[in-house]
Amino acid sequence: MRTPSPTRSVLRPHLRAAAWPLVALGVLQTLSVAGTLYLPHLNARIIDEGVTRGDLDTVWRLGSVMAVLAVLQLLIAGTATALGAYISVRIARDLRAALFQHVMRLGTADVRGFTPASLITRCGNDVVQVQMLVLTMCTTVLTVPITMIGAVVMGLREEPRLTWLMAVAVPALVLVVLGFAWLALPKYRRMQPQIDRVNAVLREQLTGLRDVRAANREDHEQRRFEQVNSALIDTSLSVGRLYLSFGPIVALLMNLGAVAVVWFGGHQAAAGEIGVGSVLAFISYLLMLMSAVLMASTVVMLLPRARVSSQRIAEVLHTPPESTTVAGGTPWRDPELGIEVRGATVRHPGAEQPALREVELRVRPGERLAVVGSTGSGKTTLLQAISRQISIDSGQISLDGTDLESADLVDLRRRVVLVPQRPYLFSGTIRSALSYGKPDADEERLWQALRWARAERIVTDLPAGLDSPVAPGGTNFSGGQRQRLCLARALVADADYYLLDDVTSALDATTEAEVARGLARATADAGVVQVTQRIASVAEADRILVLDRGTVVGEGNHDDLLGTCSTYREFVESQSLEETTA
Ligand SMILES: Nc1ncnc2c1ncn2[C@@H]1O[C@H](COP(=O)(O)OP(=O)(O)OP(=O)(O)O)[C@@H](O)[C@H]1O
């Protein structure tokens, strides 16, 4: 079975949506080309029937017709160009929107797999490549064949004995174009991944700028950037050099064609066999024919590059979204059942060992479960799995008796709120940042959440209060302030379950204790799974789950675990040691 071309599959829905503008464009282009083809013929008649015979009336009459026709042709061609640009911009806009919408629905693992840098290139540069192709197609798809046929027919009408020149000039030009394509296409293919690499390096360097400076590695990073950048520049330059040689060769061929017409046609004109106007018209038709071949070659050049870009866009669009049950999944069964994890095993893509092995846990409404374990023991992975940021490889996770795989994802995310280890604050104001997950939250709710998260002072200390600006990522706040604001944002959502991933790690012990008290009040009716490294937070929990290398090695309350779980004892002892040292 033939697989549809990626360009076609990516463009089809958008071309269909632009059907009427495309029809209008076709009509305008046909009229414009017809005008272009008729003008040299009129010119020939003015010269041969008017100028040569000294018939001024004919010169005036045909001259006026030619002037009106030329203006009309210009207007129509201008409108067609504008319409073509409009269609290509509109298609690019819709394609980018569709791509962005799809990326938003991709699973976390898929986003990691593509890499954010590549996704940015795909939404940006790759869409631009497709847009360029559409724009070129808009100006050539009808113009080229009509011009080619029209130029040959009109050339034959003017002087059939010169048409052999067309039969020589056009294949020569086609050969040059094919040679150029053969040299240029591999370079174009190399370019997109090179743009990806530049973006990836740049993104990493800008994200880790502080660490680069702290480690004095500016020179190293500069070299790393220069390496990927110069690879891209080299490719771009070699394409540019090819174009440099292509232009003069094509111009030479076209001029040789014109000279040949003058040479052979001139002899016939001198012998009185044809008019000078016909020779001039034939030159115009030959040049039109060659220009049409060039226009077609532009499409031939753009097509493979746009194909590579379409392929990259199609890869994203064809990646299934996170869930087939984004809305309208299986209803929740029994609110008393809460969160249940049964035999959950998770292996991250590319990882040798599973991050979670056969994990079992249960959290009911109003219950608080603390999760402790050494670094890398799978705590974050567990919370990601419960909130369905990642899928589990085996076992089952359910909420209120409904398997998360078949649950309504939007409703799940409304009911179960994850506060990650390094949450992100979006730019805007504190008000917009706090109500990010619940845009209809009233002001009282925002203040209440701020009080619970002990973040009220952060806001009242600012002159503009809730309307104070937040920089992208919340970088105008300290780590501890950011953590509390993010916690407040989660509490605004008023969820049924909270998954808290070490959310007080940047706070001092006193503030942490205050936050813990606020949290306890805020989430009194909710179920809470709290990953923590602090013994103080563990003490507040109803139960404690101890993870070691992805496996549950203990579960119970503090006293039970002290007696039964050596990993937990080590955790407690390390904390006591820290406190003593402090
Ligand atoms: N995206 C990933 N790809 C591959 N392996 C991963 C990925 N994320 C985590 N891991 C691995 O899974 C294991 C568990 O990681 P996880 O982040 O869940 O640990 P953690 O207990 O939360 O650690 P920490 O306390 O340091 O935050 C680790 O061995 C880690 O290297």
From TrEMBL:
Localisation per UniProt entry: Cell membrane
Single GO molecular function: ABC-type oligopeptide transporter activity
Residue ranges of every copy of the ABC transmembrane type-1 domain listed in the record: 23-305
UniProt keywords, alphabetically: ATP-binding, Cell membrane, Membrane, Nucleotide-binding, Transmembrane, Transmembrane helix, Transport
Name of the protein in question: ATP-binding cassette, subfamily B
GO CC annotations, alphabetized: plasma membrane
Taxonomy of the source species: Bacteria, Bacillati, Actinomycetota, Actinomycetes, Actinopolysporales
Organism this protein belongs to: Actinopolyspora xinjiangensis
Pfam families the UniProt entry points to: ABC_membrane (PF00664), ABC_tran (PF00005)
Gene3D superfamilies: ABC transporter type 1, transmembrane domain, P-loop containing nucleotide triphosphate hydrolases
All copies of domain ABC transporter, residue ranges: 341-574
InterPro entries documented for this protein: AAA+_ATPase (IPR003593), ABC1_TM_dom (IPR011527), ABC1_TM_sf (IPR036640), ABC_transporter-like_ATP-bd (IPR003439), ABC_transporter-like_CS (IPR017871), P-loop_NTPase (IPR027417), Type_1_exporter (IPR039421)
Signal peptide: none
Entry keyword annotation includes ATP-binding: yes
Domain of life: Bacteria
Membrane topology: Multi-pass membrane protein
